[in-house]
Amino acid sequence: MIRFYRNAFIVALVLLVLTPTFIYMGISKANLVSRLYPAGKTSLQWKPVIEPLEPSGQTSIQVLSELGSIHYQYFLDAERPFPYTHYSMDFIVSEDAFTPADFSAFTEIVFHVRCEPENVIFLAILSFDEQVTDIHDPRTRRVSSAPLSCSPQWQEVSLSLDEIITPEWWLSERNLAFSDTGYNHQKVMALAFVNSRQSPRATISHVYLDDITLHGNQPIYLYLSIAGIALCWLVALGLLVVAYVRERIRDIKEKVRLDQPLLAYKQLSIEPQKDKEKSDLFRFMATEYSNPDLSLEMVASTLGINRNKVNELLKAELGLTFSAYLNKLRLTEAARLLTQKNAVAVSEIAYSVGYNNVSYFNKLFKGEYGCAPKMFKSIDFNSNSDEHS
Question: CA-CA distance, 337 to 333, in Å (whole number)?
């Protein structure tokens, strides 16, 4: 069994290493991240677009840098009621093909922003609306937005995509229900940073953007990793159970082979004794062990040997007490009968070797051979396949 325990330890060690690795891989795969800026591995291609392209009155916008972080500045005409500028990441990169971005796998957008001076701006999602959008007219795109405060210090902003909603003014202009505040996550046309009515007027405002990422969660990958590692554990456990049974059978066969010389019908396991008392004792027990009434008192009385002397002789020769040696003889014979007479009931074998109580016999047999007599009967002792497994 030492070999089995060594192999079981190695298998358990490997699985203990693989388990956190599989879980980590599942969590990593489940946490979906798409980096929009700076450029990274993403399937969402975009181009920068500003509005207005040319100054409208005194309202203007200018991109100063897109290296390191996005930096643009704008100026709002104080004389106009609703001056408007935006810097957008436009996902419709080709005039010939309508290829909006699919945000359905994502749940939030995270980015870093700072403004000089302090400002309130909108993050807007411009999407395709089946009822009103003309793909060739940017003014017909559905506008959904969320306001955010912006200070001269860098800050991280995290917005749920469901918190970005279509405002009433846009719905009112198109005679749509005010409750229709959602947008099609699968057809996002642009992501825009827009000034608000609370943005400073008649002053140059700077906006810096960095680390723009979309985050999502696909728990299926975590579930698959858990299922995969669970399957590995189950398979390993099944293989270990099979290996354990094979080792137990091999050990049982070896034990039966070594115990057989104790029986009366074979040569005794002891050397021929010069001492007559010792010789008589072993001969008597080897022939009378199947007698259910055999006891220490009977042996002492029949052989004329003191009870203590009987135990001393057995202890000195075999290291066993009278009861232990008697059970050893009976159980060894029971094992022989179980291997040769598969049709014989366990109770019959128990009675034939001197046990009147079958339950007690089963308990002793299991303690001796590590399995119940019924299981022992099922072992093929004529096969050597387990000897070298």
Answer: 6
